[in-house]
Design a protein that fits this description.
Layout lengths: L11 E3 H8 L3 H10 L10 E4 L2 E5 H15 L14
Antiparallel strand pairs: 1-3, 2-3
C-alpha cells in the first residue's frame, strides 16, 4: 500500500494562514480561488491533501508581488526649468 502524500513544511498555506495574511474573510478567499484575484489575471489554485485544502506559498507570494508592483506609484516626470535669459 502506498502512503498518502503529505505537503512539504512551509511550501503550502492553510486557509486560516491566508485569511490572517491578507486580512480578509474565508468567503473572499474562496471567491478569489474560484473567480480570480481582482486586478490580476491570477487565481488561487487550492490543492487537496486528504481533507485539508492548502494553497501554494509560491503562488500566494507571486500574487502579492504582482499586486504590490501594480499599486506602486509611478516615478514623477522631472521637467527642466527654462532659463530666464
Amino acid at each position: 500500500m502506498s502512503s498518502a502524500a503529505t505537503p512539504a513544511p512551509g511550501e503550502y498555506l492553510t486557509i486560516a494562514e491566508l485569511i490572517e495574511r491578507w486580512h480578509t474573510s474565508r468567503t473572499t478567499v474562496w471567491r478569489w480561488a474560484k473567480s480570480g484575484i481582482p486586478g490580476t489575471a491570477m487565481r488561487l489554485n487550492p490543492v487537496k491533501f486528504g481533507r485539508a485544502v492548502l494553497f501554494r506559498r509560491a503562488t500566494v507570494e507571486h500574487i502579492e508581488a504582482a499586486l504590490t508592483a501594480a499599486s506602486a506609484p509611478a516615478r514623477p516626470v522631472r521637467r527642466r526649468r527654462r532659463s530666464a535669459a
